[in-house]
Amino acid sequence: MITTVIWIVFLLLAVWIAFLLWLDYKKHKDNLEKNSWVKTGAIGFIGNFFDTLGIGSFAIETALFKFMNQTEDRVLPGTLNVANTIATVAQGIIFIQIIEVEPITLITMLASAGLGATLGAGIVSNFSEKSVRLTMGVALLVTSGFMIVTKLNWIEGGGIALGLTGAKLAIGVIVNFILGALMTAGIGLYAPCMALVFALGMSPAVAFPIMMGSCAVLMPFAAYRFIKEGAYNRKASLIISITGLIAVFIAAFVVKSLPLDALRWLVLVVVIYTATVMLRAGLATS
Q1: 232 and 79 in contact (C-beta within 8 Å)?
Q2: Under 8 Å between Cβ of 152 and 268
Q3: CA–CA dist 35, 65 (Å, integer)
Q4: CA distance 259 to 59
Q5: In this predicted structure, what is the pLDDT of residue 264?
Q6: C-alpha–C-alpha distance, residues 171 and 196, integer Å
Q7: CA distances from 21 to 114, 125, 140, 148 (A)
Q8: Of the residues 110, 125, 207, 269, which has the maximum number of CB atoms within 10 A of its CB?
Q9: Chain centre distance of CA 124
Q10: 253, HSE (Cβ side, Cα atoms, 13 Å)
């Protein structure tokens, strides 16, 4: 019953953001960005395909946006959040249905991430281009750190628990609030949330509904703030909303799994390189 209510809420949030995005797109259709429909569509497909498999999309898409020169750095955090909202909500619906999580743990961690994002988006949407570059550079380095930690199993923990109680639940809620706020600055939530779940002794499989559900809650509210402020790439967000959704269904129901170890290391190298580029550009900006 609880999971049914959650996915209905998710569905309503996705429809809400799709409606706002379409209205904003129509309002500015004569003054759209110059990026390529094909390139940005491919970025969204690739990012959300591997996002569904647990790698995360923000780091991949940031690297591709920079490599293909498809959006301004200033609006990159907003673009990542708005463009991937609908695809991420779809992931949340899918994984909450197929992987069991203790209801109180799921609801409180999802709600805390949403509150964190609501706070964070209002701040990030007003950042200057220099601030965005420096923030994104640091964010990517932090993300790479979490990727290394989870890949090398440096965090001791992991178990079979499907939920949390007491102090562990409080820690999970507080940390997920912080991760929700940081995600609006471009720090992907998947890697740190996966590390958090593992460290608190929950089953690794539980990370998927928690991290995807958290993003499904927080991203619509973050997206609303970015749309309201106009701090995102409208053209890229519209096409990625479509291609990203297609990628989610292909990854979840057709591919399901891939040998991802080598790819994770490749993504890590790309993330560190992109972080270096972002930081150099930010420090060089007057």
Answers
A1: yes
A2: no
A3: 10
A4: 19
A5: 63
A6: 9
A7: 19, 16, 27, 35
A8: 110
A9: 15
A10: 9
Question: Please, what's the b/e burial string for 43-61 (b: 16 or more CB within 10 A of its CB; e: otherwise)?
Answer: bbbbbbbbbbbbbbbbbbb
Residue in 73, 185, 192 with CA at minimum distance from that of residue 139: 185
Instruction: Read off the amino acid at residue 4.
Output: T
C-beta separation of 147 from 88 below 8 A? no
Tell whether pTM > 0.90.
no
Helix, strand, coil shares, percent, the chain, to 5: 80, 0, 20
Q: Which residue type does 90 have?
A: A
Distance CA 105, CA 95 (A): 15
Instruction: Please give the structure tokens belonging to residue 100.
Output: 């069991």
For the chain, the maximum distance between any two Cα atoms, rounded to a whole number of angstroms, is: 55
Q: Are 58 and 187 in contact (CB under 8 A)?
A: yes
Show pLDDT as tens, one digit a residue, over the chain (286 residues).
777 888 899 999 999 999 999 999 999 998 888 899 999 999 999 999 988 887 778 888 988 998 898 988 888 888 998 999 999 999 999 888 888 888 889 899 998 988 888 877 777 667 676 776 777 677 767 767 766 766 665 555 556 678 888 898 999 899 888 888 877 776 677 777 777 777 787 877 787 888 888 888 888 988 998 999 898 999 999 999 999 999 999 988 876 665 656 656 666 676 677 678 767 777 876 5
d(CA 206, CA 160): 9
CB 191 within 8 A of CB 143: yes
Query: Is the alpha carbon torsion for 10, 244, 236, 26 positive or negative?
Result: negative
Tell me the C-alpha to C-alpha distance, in Å, between residue 3 and each of 7, 88, 94, 104, 106.
Answer: 6, 16, 11, 11, 10
The CA R_g of the chain, rounded to the nearest whole Å, is 17
Any idea which residue has 């990854």 for tokens?
251
